[in-house]
């Protein structure tokens, strides 16, 4: 059954539609795998065996009667434990909320279930999604399946590990400063941060409400596209939700002729680990071999925008957590407490100034991207480091050391993280494709074309915990 657990979502859907695959057997196999691997990797905080099995029984009855709810019918999916699942714990990776069970599903969970998904569990994360490592002192540090002494990246580390190791076919993550994209890069999987407003955040505990995104995490670009098809609709319950309809172009690109790719060396390609640089160079050459035209560009105002990103994210985080800090401050882990103290000291003047800088920077970037289809950047700038090797005070800069991802969250543009190679120690490396607002369809087409040519998803079978 292990081979089935690494099929892509489209293949599983076809097998279920043709009654070649049983939702019950598939779900039970996933739950069994979670039971075997989770004590080692700490990918899940909560697994609901009974509810998942009962839903599989229901979906199998529907399957046998010829009713298929949608593209995820009978497909096991993991949900980051900061997103509400009715009746299940939503801890946000904290002890403060360890006993809280929300009374409704998040909009994204409801849409997954309407499409037939089976929610198998709540994925582990960096506490309150406020960190880049997923070293959780309360529920166990999420371990990178390629080397369990190393971090999996964060904050959606459990979601990435679940997908990479066959403990789910896809997962939901959240991305405020790179939290979908970084763990995907460090674990050898795919992560999509949609355009801000494309996917509803109703029913998700906030980190920074003007930066927060929810996105799919999968093993292939096409699987991310399938999940986005399910998730991307207007939601009146999220005031930031876009009313712009989403319709994906399902044309499969044979090559990238006619695609113009922008490369901004400043900031994005600075301070890249020497072992990762040749992998990125090869990825750029591959895109050119596929017919894309690469052109260098300059985006003015990056340093000022980075300052704005820090001010906005930390101030908004503190404003949400202030009531909890008054009563439960002693229960926060040291690194999160340090970040919140930084946010407490940000003035209203600096916050408003940062928002003005942000608006100007978005417009300047759009002006620079005229005639550009996609920006290409490294995803992780450094390799995964050992668990426990960074102090709480140093941790606030982890995302900026591991990846230059936060700037894209400030922009709110769609971004796709996907593998671009492996180091000599057999650790994954990722690159990032960034599109203009609401161009997810093109982004996914370009990513899929590269992925089919490069073939990196097949490398997952070499991970020790894919064969266990």
UniProtKB/TrEMBL annotation:
PROSITE patterns reported for this sequence: AMIDASES (PS00571)
A Pfam entry, by short name: Amidase
GO molecular function: catalytic activity
Source domain of life: Bacteria
Amidase domain span: 25-444
Protein name (database record): Amidase
Organism: Aneurinibacillus aneurinilyticus ATCC 12856
């Amino acid at each position: 059954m292990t081979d089935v657990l690494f099929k892509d979502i489209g293949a599983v859907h076809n097998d279920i539609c043709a009654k070649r695959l049983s939702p019950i057997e598939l779900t039970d196999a996933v739950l069994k795998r979670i039971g075997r691997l989770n004590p080692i990797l700490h990918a899940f905080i909560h697994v609901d065996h009974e509810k998942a099995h009962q839903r599989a029984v229901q979906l199998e009855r529907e399957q046998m009667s010829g009713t298929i709810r949608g593209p995820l019918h009978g497909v096991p999916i993991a949900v980051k434990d900061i997103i509400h699942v009715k009746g299940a714990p939503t801890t946000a990776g904290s002890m403060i909320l360890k006993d809280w069970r929300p009374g409704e599903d998040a909009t994204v969970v409801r849409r997954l279930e309407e499409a037939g998904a089976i929610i198998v569990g709540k994925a582990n994360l960096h506490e309150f999604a406020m960190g880049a490592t997923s070293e959780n002192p309360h529920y166990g540090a999420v371990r990178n399946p390629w080397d369990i002494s190393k971090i999996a990246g964060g904050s959606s580390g459990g979601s990435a590990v679940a997908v990479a190791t066959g403990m789910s076919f896809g997962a939901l993550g959240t991305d405020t400063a790179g939290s979908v994209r970084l763990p995907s890069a460090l674990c050898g999987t795919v992560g999509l941060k949609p355009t801000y407003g494309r996917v509803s955040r109703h029913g998700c505990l906030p980190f920074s409400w003007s930066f927060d995104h929810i996105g799919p995490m999968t093993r292939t670009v096409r699987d991310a596209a399938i999940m986005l098809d399910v998730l991307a609709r207007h939601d009146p319950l999220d005031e930031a939700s876009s009313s712009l309809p989403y319709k994906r172009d399902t044309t499969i690109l044979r090559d990238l002729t006619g695609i113009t790719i922008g490369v901004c060396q400043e900031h994005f390609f600075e301070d890249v680990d020497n072992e990762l640089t040749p992998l990125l160079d090869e990825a750029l050459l591959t895109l050119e071999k596929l017919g894309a035209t690469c052109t260098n560009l300059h985006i003015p105002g990056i340093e000022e925008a980075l300052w704005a990103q820090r001010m906005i994210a930390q101030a908004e985080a503190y404003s949400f957590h202030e009531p909890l800090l008054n009563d439960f401050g002693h229960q926060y882990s040291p690194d999160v407490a340090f970040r919140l103290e930084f946010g407490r000291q940000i003035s209203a003047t600096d916050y408003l100034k940062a928002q003005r800088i942000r608006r100007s920077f978005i417009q300047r970037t759009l002006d620079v991207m005229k005639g550009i289809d996609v920006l290409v950047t490294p995803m992780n700038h450094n390799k995964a480091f050992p668990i426990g090797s960074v102090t709480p005070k140093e941790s606030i800069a982890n995302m900026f050391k591991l990846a230059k991802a936060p700037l894209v969250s400030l922009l709110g543009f769609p971004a796709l993280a996907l593998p671009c190679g492996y180091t000599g120690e057999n650790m994954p490396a990722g690159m990032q494709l960034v599109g203009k607002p609401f161009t997810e369809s093109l982004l996914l087409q370009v990513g899929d074309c590269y992925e089919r040519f490069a073939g990196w998803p097949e490398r997952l079978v070499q991970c020790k915990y894919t064969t266990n």
